[in-house]
């Protein structure tokens, strides 16, 4: 699409491809949400959207992507990429920014279908997000946050070399729960072989990166 080139943006890693979903891929991502995103009795999200019935989780996934497209502005955007491995959608990686042209800072978030967790995919898709931020957009900072009991997310964050950036308290289902904030500076980012970006140049004005 000439007027919306973000659908041609691709981040390729040794085992994954990240891109804006087609309608078919968005439907497949919704199926991952319906199948389940985390174990029973655990809630990694501030908004407990995964407690809904499977069909409602699927519909919420689709509508969330539609909303992010419809409210997109260069000074306030959220890019929700599908994560594809061996031709199958396994989860989603988010990269977002507010006033990126000034702050040069992005925030990342993600989720994987429960049956695809524990296979190194989460680490590789976060590396892809950081590659886009630092190598593609020229970001100065990347931030992320996770509940203190979200050990898988904290493990990925610490493994990649983020620095702790304080503690915040969030309302999780009516309970005050501490979260850990993390920040990575550009100079701490260590790019790896096998990560490439295509289709970025036409997207830069839409990302506040030109």
Automatic annotation (TrEMBL):
<dbReference type="InterPro" id="IPR000182">
    <property type="entry name" value="GNAT_dom"/>
</dbReference>
<keyword id="KW-0808">Transferase</keyword>
<dbReference type="GO" id="GO:0005737">
    <property type="term" value="C:cytoplasm"/>
</dbReference>
<dbReference type="GO" id="GO:0008999">
    <property type="term" value="F:protein-N-terminal-alanine acetyltransferase activity"/>
</dbReference>
<protein>
    <submittedName>
        <fullName>RimJ/RimL family protein N-acetyltransferase</fullName>
    </submittedName>
</protein>
<feature type="domain" description="N-acetyltransferase">
    <location>
        <begin position="40"/>
        <end position="189"/>
    </location>
</feature>
<dbReference type="InterPro" id="IPR016181">
    <property type="entry name" value="Acyl_CoA_acyltransferase"/>
</dbReference>
<dbReference type="GO" id="GO:1990189">
    <property type="term" value="F:protein N-terminal-serine acetyltransferase activity"/>
</dbReference>
<dbReference type="InterPro" id="IPR051908">
    <property type="entry name" value="Ribosomal_N-acetyltransferase"/>
</dbReference>
<dbReference type="Pfam" id="PF13302">
    <property type="entry name" value="Acetyltransf_3"/>
</dbReference>
